[in-house]
Design a protein that fits this description.
This protein has eleven helices and nine strands. With 287 residues, it is an alpha/beta fold. Bound molecules: adenosine-5'-diphosphate and shikimate-3-phosphate. Adenosine-5'-diphosphate binds next to helix 3, helix 8 and helix 11. One of its GO terms (biological process) is amino acid biosynthetic process.
Length: 287
């Protein structure tokens, strides 16, 4: 049997029903290559005791799943995310959580999971713009009216969305460049999903560029074109992304869970890290 020792770095501390449990993930692989998930028995609501002492991982097949963070997608992992969500929601006190980051960084995918964990509603600012425009797609707005026109509507959307409490908002990748948008996003807290360009280009090449007009190419080599365009945009925007209250670096997270490829990190693991970083920020503000 293999076991994974969790000791520090990713700290999922949960406070449920007045009891404190902690889930500590030690990213340092043991020399012995022994893996062991060691979770304190957690007292749950309704006096149910969840004994998360060990997750049995078979020697060959499942060890990779645990290391890759698939653990977070297990039943226990989902429970921990929900518990962490409740804890962070109480610190947020109704404030919205705005996800910022480049196209394809996972704002929508991770945002939906976060809204469930926090018991918040989910809003996608691109979808809101499309609604304001009577159902015209973002790609169509760019084509017919140009980027500047889209940016006006994006600001209107963020303004409206910032007025509604308890929302996770996936912003468009370019929302950070307008100082006005920060005024709206500062009504809540902002988390930057920092994903390496190569990974973004691979994701976008996999799904195509139809819905992303700034990257829309006919070329067969979608990866190279996307990578080039994303590099230029990222240079222009890196300072603006750095304004976010908290950052989730997928490179750091991959190193932490022992993965070579950031694309192997599951959205649930990323969502957990968003909550951890958001809570760190909220705690630092309190001091
Ligand atoms: N952690 C992840 N693992 C696997 N696929 C992902 C992950 N995050 C996002 N994706 C995929 O990448 C693409 C872009 O993600 P999306 O959430 O739409 O990004 P954004 O909203 O930032 O543009 C989608 O096809 C999505 O399914
Ligand atoms: O980076 C950008 O400038 C854009 C990102 C898109 O949103 P996603 O980040 O959700 O793809 C969308 O708002 C529009 O195509 C412009």
């Amino acid at each position: 049997m293999k076991a994974l020792t969790y000791g520090s770095t990713l700290q999922f501390s949960t406070s449920v029903g007045g009891e404190i449990g902690s889930f500590n993930q030690n990213c340092k692989r043991q020399q012995t290559q022994q893996h062991f998930i060691n979770l304190n028995p957690l007292k749950l609501e309704r006096h149910r005791t969840l004994n998360l002492v060990t997750a049995h991982v078979s020697k060959d097949s499942n060890a990779h799943d645990v290391e890759s963070g698939t653990f977070c997608d297990s039943l226990d992992g989902k429970w921990l995310l929900k518990a962490k969500g409740r804890e962070v929601a109480s610190c947020l006190d109704g404030q919205c959580l705005f996800l910022v980051g480049m196209m394809g960084s996972g704002k929508t995918t991770v945002g939906e999971i976060l809204s469930d964990a926090l018991d918040y509603t989910f809003a996608d600012s691109d979808k809101y713009v499309e609604k304001l425009m009577g159902g015209t797609s973002v790609a169509q707005i760019f084509k017919e009216s140009g980027e500047a026109y889209f940016r006006e509507y994006e600001s209107k959307a963020l303004q409206k969305l910032s007025l509604v409490p308890q929302q996770v908002v996936a912003t468009g990748g370019g929302a950070v460049v307008r100082p006005l948008n920060w005024r709206f996003m500062r009504q809540g807290i902002t988390v930057f999903l920092d994903v390496p360009l190569d990974a973004l280009a691979r994701r976008i090449a996999a799904v195509g560029t139809d819905s992303r007009p700034l990257l829309d190419y006919d070329s067969a080599d979608c990866y190279t074109k996307a990578f080039t365009a994303l590099s230029a945009l990222s240079k222009e925007r890196s300072e603006a992304y750095a304004n976010a209250d908290a950052t989730v670096s997928l490179l750091n997270l991959a190193a932490c869970v022992g993965l070579k490829d950031v694309l192997d990190i599951t959205p649930t693991t990323i969502a957990m890290e968003v909550l951890v970083q958001a809570q760190k920020y909220l705690n630092s503000k309190r001091r």
